[in-house]
């Protein structure tokens, strides 16, 4: 039997079918944006299945208003983040601590984790898929880490997985928030295989109804569905690597200005992002290249605390979400207002941990 999500159902539908633990994100009107309740449900479910010998593997998918698949997860619930950040709601702290713990658990689950990354896969959606052992994209996958547009940074382990993309692709995706499709996701190491849209439901049912002898048999069934897909950004890779490898945000922007029409459009994109957070993000990606996942998540937990509390009344994140999703005027009042006005001390402050190591909220994460 297939569970059909509905608006009357819980936001996370979790069931064991055959040898698979199967999760459907069921908040379609919000493109399955993660609420604190969803994070807690996912964390509790995965912790239980991790210890359950009857569960061979986990599969996760999203839903849309017409049924399953179509949209994986658009990220965290930014309206909640804005309201909590504006009012001092302590659940803001809980959300990030528990979300990052969930991200770490997925990477270290010890069992196959198959993410059906169909449709929109952004922000927090990347956080609950990038740790998977089989990350499946389709021809309608739209993947991005667009946080600089809301005065945030690519968190949920973004420093870790973006910094491991080839060349300077990590800097490009992190700074601009550009959206990529299936071919680029595969080329950049952010997906493991592409499956056709019309084969998702059949594969999901096969996973639920097959008596797999072992993990190898399961993996073989999934991989047998893979189809080839060409990357779209190949023609820009030389410019990406040349421009986004520059030492500073200002140097990156200047290099782009001197490039192709595509590069100049990228420079214009950077000019719309939070100048302060561009500096923070560039440092994040470059530090994370030398970090383990746990170290990166602890760094990101420090950074996100500062996004809301370092500058009382001047949070770039609260302002960015206001402009994009609350008032929707699309005119954030960034401070500082330009790339050239950001001083080193301003962005370096984001990397000072507010906690001693032994009391860090993610101190328990193992490398």
From TrEMBL:
Alphabetized CDD domains for the sequence: crotonase-like
Keyword terms of this UniProt record: Hydrolase
InterPro entries attached to this UniProt entry: ClpP/crotonase-like_dom_sf, ECH_dom, HIBYL-CoA-H
Keyword Hydrolase: yes
Domain Enoyl-CoA hydratase/isomerase span(s) in chain numbering: 21-351
Keyword Hydrolase part of the UniProt annotation: yes
NCBIfam families: PRK05617.1 (NF004127)
Name recorded for this polypeptide: Enoyl-CoA hydratase/isomerase family protein
Species: Comamonas resistens
């Amino acid at each position: 039997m297939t569970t059909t999500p509905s608006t009357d159902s819980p936001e996370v539908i979790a069931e064991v079918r055959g040898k698979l633990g199967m999760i459907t994100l069921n908040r379609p009107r919000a493109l399955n944006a993660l609420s604190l309740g969803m994070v807690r449900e996912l964390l509790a479910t995965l912790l239980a299945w991790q210890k359950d010998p009857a569960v061979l593997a986990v599969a996760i998918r999203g839903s849309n208003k017409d049924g399953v698949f179509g949209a994986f997860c658009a990220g965290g619930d930014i309206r909640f983040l804005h309201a909590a950040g504006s009012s001092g709601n302590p659940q803001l702290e809980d959300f990030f601590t528990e979300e990052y713990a969930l991200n770490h658990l997925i990477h270290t689950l010890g069992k196959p984790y198959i993410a059906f990354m169909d449709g929109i896969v952004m922000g927090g959606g990347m956080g609950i898929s990038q740790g998977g052992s089989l990350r499946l994209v389709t021809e309608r996958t739209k993947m991005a880490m667009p946080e600089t547009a809301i005065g945030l940074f690519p968190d949920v382990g973004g420093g870790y997985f973006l910094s491991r993309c080839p060349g300077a692709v990590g800097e490009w995706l992190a700074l601009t928030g550009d959206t990529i499709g299936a071919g680029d996701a595969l080329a950049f190491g952010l997906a493991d295989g592409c499956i056709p849209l019309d084969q998702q439901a059949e594969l999901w049912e096969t996973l639920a109804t097959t008596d797999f002898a072992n993990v190898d048999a399961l993996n073989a069934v999934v991989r047998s569905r893979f189809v080839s897909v060409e990357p779209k950004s190949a023609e820009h890779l030389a410019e990406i690597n040349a421009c986004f490898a520059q030492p500073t945000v200002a140097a990156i922007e200047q290099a782009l200005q001197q490039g192709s029409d595509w590069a100049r459009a990228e420079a214009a994109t950077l000019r719309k992002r939070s100048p302060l957070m561009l500096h923070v993000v560039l440092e994040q990606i470059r530090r994370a290249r030398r970090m383990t996942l746990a170290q990166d998540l602890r760094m990101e937990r420090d950074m996100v605390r500062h996004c809301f509390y370092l500058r009382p009344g001047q949070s770039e994140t609260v302002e960015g979400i206001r402009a994009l999703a609350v008032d929707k005027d699309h005119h954030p009042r960034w401070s500082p207002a330009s790339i050239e006005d950001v001083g080193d001390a301003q962005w370096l402050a984001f990397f000072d941990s507010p906690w001693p190591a032994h009391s860090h909220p993610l101190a328990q994460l193992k490398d």
